[in-house]
Amino acid sequence: MKELILVTGGTGYIGSHTVVELIKEGFDVVIIDNLSNSTTESLDGIEQITGIRPDFEQFDLLDLQRLEQFFASRPSLKAIIHFAASKAVGESVEKPLLYYRNNLNSLINLLHCMVVHEVSPIVFSSSCTIYGQPRELPVTEQAPILPAESPYGNTKQICEEILADSISAFNVLKAISLRYFNPIGAHPSALIGELPRGVPNNLVPYVTQTAAGVLPELKIYGNDYDTPDGSAIRDYINVVDLARAHVTAIRRLIAGKNSEPLEYFNLGTGKGTSVLELVQTFEQVTGVKVNHRIVGRRAGDIEKVWADTTKANETLGWKAIHSLDETLLSAWNWEKRLRDIK
Ligand code: NAD
Ligand code: UD1
């Protein structure tokens, strides 16, 4: 019998790549998504890649009654991977209540149903944003959690606290919180990837849309940071590598190999890349020029961050394997497919 995993937000960017890896590893998957930031086209992509169309239920996790019905109808549910959340940092500043309501209540509703129906474990999508600008680099899981720069970042911190308090209160629960660094790229088939909504805020979609001629120029936010070339440094992690980590985490929990009821892991490559290095690498691997200009720093940006991946490598048994070259090429192939560029 295949084990059944609930993937919330499974039609979204990271969720859809994780569903592919789960199916490849022999799991049954059921997705809940309200399609607020995705479409069912990702289900077509998943089916083309794996030959299997995952079960899909379209509803909002804020609808507790509907979620309870779902849990009652799936007694064989083995574990949960919870991606569903609102994730745009800028929007969260303008609409804080929407972000607190969606990100906190969807987790609270899930944990409620897990306790009532005695379903556990859960893997939670956290973010390196909770570390702010760390004093020591690379950043380990023990680094202090700094006051959040945005309501979005705050929801990730509060969700980790909700998980910790719920796990202390209810013996049935156990969880892994995965702290992603900067996820980029797309599936090598270019059948699934990140869907653009309006003008992108994140660097790589901005780079690919500029290369495709959809946007006139990339603005590089700052060249006066205390870094070798003056531009800011991040740890860019391939989305398929990230997806594989979720399968590893869920296996660890199901097998009871977790050393504590709530574990935290940094998911990055362990290597920092500057904005200028990333643009140069993109140009080299694709042969396409990216029109760019240096402008002032972006408000709220930190100077540099990259992960200490020792715990993820040694305890979780996961490592990022894709190079930045391959990952940027996959992002470009996805952009070309979206824009029908040959
Ligand atoms: P995404 O927007 O592509 O996917 C999230 C999915 O959740 C979407 O399909 C959306 O429709 C769905 N959703 C949102 N609220 C819902 C609700 N109330 N009920 C049902 N479905 C709902 O985002 P992503 O990039 O795949 O991110 C997945 C998770 O990882 C999020 O929790 C995000 O905060 C976290 N994360 C993402 C990044 C990143 O750079 N992409 C970095 C760190 C952490
Ligand atoms: C942002 C979020 C973070 C979230 C992460 C992944 C902020 C402050 N932080 O991180 O919470 O977890 O996305 O979704 O928004 N850059 C440019 N030009 C651009 C776009 C970006 O130079 O047009 C630079 C930025 O200044 C930064 C780097 O590229 O130095 C990466 O930016 P981005 O992709 O937006 O991610 P983060 O800011 O690291």
SSE topology:
Layout: E1 4-8, H1 13-24, E2 28-32, H2 41-50, E3 55-57, H3 64-73, E4 77-82, H4 89-94, H5 96-116, E5 122-127, H6 151-169, E6 175-180, E7 182-184, H7 203-211, E8 218-221, E9 233-234, E10 236-238, H8 239-254, E11 262-267, E12 273-274, H9 275-286, E13 292-295, H10 310-316, H11 324-339
Parallel strand pairs: 1-2, 1-4, 2-3, 4-5, 5-6, 6-11, 7-10, 8-13
Antiparallel strand pairs: 9-12
Helix pairs in contact: 1-2, 1-8, 3-5, 5-6, 7-11, 9-11
Structural class: alpha/beta
User: What's the total count of β strands?
Assistant: 13
Mean pLDDT: 97
Oligomer type: single chain
CATH homologous superfamily grouping of the domain at 4-184 and 236-267: NAD(P)-binding Rossmann-like Domain
* Top CATH class of the domain at 4-184 and 236-267: Alpha Beta
Describe the structure.
With 342 residues, the protein is an alpha/beta fold. It has a domain at 4-184 and 236-267: Rossmann fold (3-Layer(aba) Sandwich), CATH 3.40.50.720. Helix content is 40%, strand content 16%. A 7-stranded parallel beta sheet has the order 3-2-1-4-5-6-11, sandwiched between helices. Strand 2 (28-32), helix 2 and strand 3 (55-57) form a beta-alpha-beta unit. The model has no long low-confidence stretch (mean pLDDT 97). Uridine-diphosphate-N-acetylglucosamine binds at residues 89, 127, 129, 149, 153, 182, 201-203, 206, 218-221, 232, 234, 275, 298, 300-301. Nicotinamide-adenine-dinucleotide binds at residues 9, 11-15, 32-38, 60-62, 83-87, 102, 106, 125, 127, 180, 183.
